Amino acid sequence: MAQTSCRKCSVPLVLGENWTDGLARARSYICRTCLSANGKAHYAKHAERAAELQRQRLAVPSNKKAAAALKSAYYAANKEKWLEYRATHRERLQQDTFLRAGKLLTWIRARAAKSGREFDLTREWIAERLQAGVCEVTGIPMELSKPPGSRFHPWAPSVDRVDSKLGYTQGNCRVVCWIYNMAKSEWSDEVVVTFAKALSARSSLAN
Fold first, then answer.
1. Domain span holding position 188
2. Binning pLDDT at 50, 70 and 90, where does residue 2 land?
3. What is the domain-level CATH number for residue 136?
4. In a 10 Å sphere around its CB, with 0-12 CB exposed, 13-18 middle and 19+ buried, how is residue 162 labelled?
5. How far apart are the first and last CA of the chain?
6. Rounded mean pLDDT, 91-110
């Protein structure tokens, strides 16, 4: 391929590292960092408008039904292609922290819009914590894969709000393992610690 450097910052493009398969297929010579910077600048400029449009879409049941019907029709017409893509995408989600961060970000942004909460998380913010590889509260190594046939892995990454009354902001969020987030729910770290100590003490007596 003739051009192998980012058209914005001139850094060498390495497929699978700072250059995605999608960008390569589209012959878009821009690295992940610059692409993300473009996205963040656009989002910062239009953040409130984007959030309002998201809230409007979610507030109208017919919009949800129309979107669901469109997706169902596409899946029915492209079943084999979709199944192949889903299998490949699932495998990549278990290996690529940047891709996994994007999936988490999309889901959290929708939740924030639906609940009307403040939101300022970025893909880079999440990816940095996924690359660290451990739960920010317990220090347990996080796992990007999941057991066959199960919906979730107890050590999968999850974005937790320290104070569940506040929004999805960098100052109020952290990346923890899924089981910790589920145990904490709307409560505090202290509640989980009390529960864990009691469970540990009871387990020690049983053994």
1. 78-206
2. low
3. 3.30.40.220
4. middle
5. 63
6. 85
